[in-house]
Design the sequence.
């Protein structure tokens, strides 16, 4: 079994696992990093959303063998460190709006929100209702309204 | 505080009578239990029971032209409804729910309920904090392992937890507070009546202060004894009624909240099950077990009662192995069936109504409500370790005692050797009443002779997981001399599986004799007509065996559909009588509290404001769980909205605004109530407009969240406002399921007003083209994609 290496939440990691195992299972079952959740395994529900080199992606749909040693994977556990704080502004907004109910989808929601704000900002504009409508992450508790409020609030402080 | 008994609560039935002079209204009896630090409990008895207030007479309304309504003949519900039932069912073991204070002065409650997102850990922590005069941060709530000695009192559902726990928890906490004051009084040589408590400390009139941490050992008792204590005056509450953030919010947003599949149980390997191509099909033979066992990462393969279980080092390798298995399947319970067959069977089974009274006008309509999915975002899952002499199970469970009993029975273990650990769940909506994954995990653990982490694939969770039963509701309303003289509702539904949900509350003999009839009876204490509609009758009829389908409650059982039919028909009567829907409801509503939420909702939502063509408002009311709610929605049915293009999605009409007003008697956490109403509203929107399950050839076609159309961001209203009315009583009513039905009804009413056509089949897109390509049933689950890098953004 080959050894795969990449950067996880700022630290280099090496794993002994077959190349075709999807990164979600490498994170959860091999490395014990359980912030990214399983909700479908087919890039639909987005509960596992994390960042790869700063952009949102779904580890359920990436073979670990497709990662390069310099690739930076950030999960919810490493989000605050990317801004050198105890909590990322988006997490603070989530707390302020008391978004979470069961909480299962929320790590993925927050990671998707941060990437969305970065994307929209790179386009030199503010978040619109259309942008929010475009978030595909499922929340089966139906926290969508508070998510919309939190994304807007978090964007102001990012 | 007076001692009233010196006997142990586990053997005593009732403490001695109160001291002369009689107790005040807030006087209750609690138990101080034997422990090294302070440990207290509520007394035995129906502390939460309260009589239902008498129906108020209708008040004058703006509808002077309408005939006075004919008072409703009381229904069964009006004398006895579910919250009273649960209060009585749970009461005998309330004294076994304890609150302890540790040496750091922190209060601990091992809650015998499930936390599935509804916020019950926060609510109960607030109740304990309030009555103990303790900061919320110094109350720690955990979920109790299954405690069979609690009998019925470890059961979560029907929005009953806050209502049934409110007084027992206050009593326990008040007992602790009184004990702490006594201990301080002894220390200072003062009378306890001179002392007060605040912020986790006892205070003397001269300003001296002793923290609970310093008092808990002295306050503890070496024997159990009952004491009479005073509950706090609600007018002095500082925590109850104040909006509070969830106590687990930080854990949730940092990824640290632990769900069943995040538990690190040593040696527990990922496990999945290969499932049949038709519901409840059975394994005949497996052609390639040896080859699958040789696949990378695969550890073992075994046939279990529901399919072929595979364990591997990662779930990814389980998925590959499940897809590789070649299984010969035997028939299931509904091979060849589809929605149309079930709808036909419902129609054929519908009990006829007696002939209508001659000479009255009759409105007679039948509504069809399709199957809907019960999946939470966390799929069915459990960790199990079944050994020859004992077993442990970890899972999000609403009925953990039944699970312990079932595991003990199946594996021939004494009940006390089965430990069932309740884990916070990633949603439930009724799904976690049922414990299919826990039993499968136990079976797989026994087969593999090792601990397992068993998880369902999403596609299985939708197709083989439990669904809310399809139902048909006929409503016939008789109108004479400008008023309703009779309201008859015959609700006919595919049977809901009552066995685990109510297993603890009904004796096995009753269940085994006539399982179907159980819910037909319960329906009577679940359902009411809140209007003065003369002779009101509502009946449930169920078809099929309760386990023909994998059926379940989904955030209530019948209410959303029963209420939707009732509210649509109420709009029809209003129209027939030439009255505005709000004015008409005000005129016929029985209880003032319901009229008050309607008024608050209509005002906040600007009922009657001018709306553009193809858009409309809709409004509905509902009472259940000793609570009252009204919902106003605005719906946009303009073509540009309906035909919005979102890939792999159903767009359709959009609810643009939701306003909900609710009266729960005593709101504990207004922010939590708002969250529950918001979530319930999203469910109601989905069930009215988009979310249905299509059975074909014995299995749902839906296999992912893009197929099963629960509300997504593109369906979400731009405005959601939830008004929590100030306290109208001294006891909290239920709310967890409360937002669903009233929103579903309001959306249906709005669509009827926007289009001029009353909808009779739900969801509204039930007969629209599917809009997705159904995934194959063999292999049962789809492959994991590999294109994730291309879709970074």
Sequence:
């Amino acid at each position: 079994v080959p050894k795969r290496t990449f950067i996880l939440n700022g630290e280099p990691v090496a794993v002994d696992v077959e190349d075709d195992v999807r990164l979600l299972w490498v994170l959860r079952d091999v490395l014990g990093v359980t912030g990214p959740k399983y909700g479908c395994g087919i890039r639909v529900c987005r509960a596992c959303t994390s960042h790869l080199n700063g952009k949102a992606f779904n580890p359920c749909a990436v073979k670990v063998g497709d990662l390069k040693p310099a690739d930076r994977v950030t999960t919810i556990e490493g989000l605050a460190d990317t801004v050198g704080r105890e909590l990322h502004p988006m997490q603070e907004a989530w707390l302020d709006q008391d978004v979470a109910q069961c909480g299962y989808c929320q790590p993925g929601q927050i990671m998707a929100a941060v990437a969305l704000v970065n994307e929209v900002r790179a386009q030199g504009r503010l978040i619109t209702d259309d942008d929010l409508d475009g978030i595909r992450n499922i929340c089966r508790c139906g926290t969508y309204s508070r998510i919309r409020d939190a994304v807007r609030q978090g964007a102001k402080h990012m | 505080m007076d001692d009233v008994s010196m006997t142990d609560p586990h053997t005593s039935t009732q403490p001695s009578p109160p001291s002369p002079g009689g107790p005040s209204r807030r006087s209750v009896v609690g138990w101080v239990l034997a422990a090294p630090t302070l440990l207290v409990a509520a007394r035995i008895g129906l502390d939460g029971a309260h009589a239902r207030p008498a129906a108020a007479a209708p008040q004058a309304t703006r509808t002077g032209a309408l005939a006075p309504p004919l008072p409703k003949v009381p229904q069964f519900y009006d004398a006895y409804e579910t919250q009273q039932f649960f209060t009585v069912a749970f009461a005998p073991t309330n004294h076994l729910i304890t609150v302890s204070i540790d040496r750091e002065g922190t209060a601990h409650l091992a809650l015998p309920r499930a936390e599935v997102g509804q916020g019950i850990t926060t609510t109960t922590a607030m109740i304990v904090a309030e009555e103990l005069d303790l900061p919320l941060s110094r109350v720690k709530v955990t979920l109790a392992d299954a405690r069979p000695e609690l009998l019925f009192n470890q059961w979560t559902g029907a929005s009953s937890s806050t209502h049934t726990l409110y007084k027992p928890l206050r009593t326990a906490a008040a007992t602790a507070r009184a004990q702490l004051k006594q201990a301080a009084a002894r220390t200072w040589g003062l009378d306890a009546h001179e002392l007060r408590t605040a912020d986790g400390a006892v205070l003397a009139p001269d300003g001296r202060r002793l923290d609970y941490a310093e008092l808990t050992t002295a306050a503890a008792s070496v024997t159990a004894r009952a004491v009479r204590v005073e509950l706090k005056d609600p007018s002095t509450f500082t925590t109850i009624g104040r909006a509070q953030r969830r106590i687990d919010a930080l854990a949730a947003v940092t990824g640290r909240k632990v769900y069943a599949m995040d538990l690190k149980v040593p040696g527990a390997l990922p496990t999945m099950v290969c499932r049949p191509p038709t519901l409840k099909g059975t394994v005949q033979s497996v052609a390639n077990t040896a080859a699958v066992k040789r696949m990378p990462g695969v550890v073992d393969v075994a046939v279990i009662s529901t399919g072929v279980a595979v364990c591997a080092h990662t779930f990814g390798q389980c998925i590959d192995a499940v897809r590789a298995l070649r299984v010969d399947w035997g028939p299931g319970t509904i091979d060849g069936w589809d929605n149309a067959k079930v709808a036909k069977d419902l129609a054929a089974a519908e009990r006829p109504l007696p002939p209508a009274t001659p000479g009255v006008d009759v409105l007679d309509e039948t509504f069809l409500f399709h199957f809907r999915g019960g999946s939470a975002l966390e799929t069915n899952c459990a960790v199990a370790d079944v050994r020859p002499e004992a077993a442990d199970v970890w899972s999000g469970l609403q009925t953990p005692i039944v699970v312990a009993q079932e595991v003990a029975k199946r594996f021939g273990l004494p009940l006390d050797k089965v430990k069932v650990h309740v884990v916070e769940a990633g949603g439930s909506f009724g799904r976690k009443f049922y414990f299919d994954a826990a039993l499968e995990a136990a079976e797989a653990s026994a087969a593999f002779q090792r601990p397992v982490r068993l998880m369902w694939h999403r596609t299985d969770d939708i197709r083989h997981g439990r669904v809310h039963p399809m139902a048909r509701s006929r409503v016939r309303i008789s109108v004479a001399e400008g008023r309703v003289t009779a309201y008859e509702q015959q609700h006919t539904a595919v049977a809901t599986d009552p066995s685990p949900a109510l297993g603890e509350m009904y004796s096995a003999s009753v269940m085994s004799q006539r399982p179907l009839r159980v819910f037909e009876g319960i329906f009577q204490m679940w359902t009411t007509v809140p209007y003065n509609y003369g002779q009101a009758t509502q009946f449930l009829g169920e078809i099929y065996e309760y386990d023909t389908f994998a059926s379940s409650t989904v955030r209530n059982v019948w209410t959303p559909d029963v209420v939707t039919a009732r509210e649509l028909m109420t709009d029809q009567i209003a129209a027939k009588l030439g009255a505005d829907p709000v004015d008409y409801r005000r005129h016929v509503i029985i209880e003032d509290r319901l009229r008050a939420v309607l008024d608050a909702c209509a005002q906040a939502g600007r009922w009657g404001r001018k709306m553009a063509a193809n858009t409309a408002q809709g409004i509905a009311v509902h009472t259940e769980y000793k609570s009252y709610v009204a919902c106003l929605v605005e719906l946009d049915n303009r073509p540009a909205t309906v035909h919005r293009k979102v890939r792999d999605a159903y767009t359709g009409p959009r609810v643009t605004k939701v306003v909900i007003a609710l009266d729960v008697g005593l709101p504990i956490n207004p922010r939590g109530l708002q969250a529950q109403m918001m979530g319930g509203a999203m469910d109601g929107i989905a069930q009215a407009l988009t979310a249905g399950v299509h059975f074909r050839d014995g299995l749902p076609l839906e296999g992912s969240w893009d197929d099963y159309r629960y509300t997504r961001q593109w369906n979400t209203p731009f405005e959601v406002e939830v008004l929590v009315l100030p306290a109208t009583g001294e006891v909290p009513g239920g709310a967890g399921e409360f937002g669903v039905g009233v929103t579903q009804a309001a959306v249906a009413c709005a669509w009827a007003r926007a289009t001029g056509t009353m909808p009779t089949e739900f969801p509204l897109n039930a007969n629209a083209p599917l809009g997705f390509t159904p995934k194959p049933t063999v292999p049962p689950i789809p492959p994991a994609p590999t294109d994730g890098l291309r879709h970074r953004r």
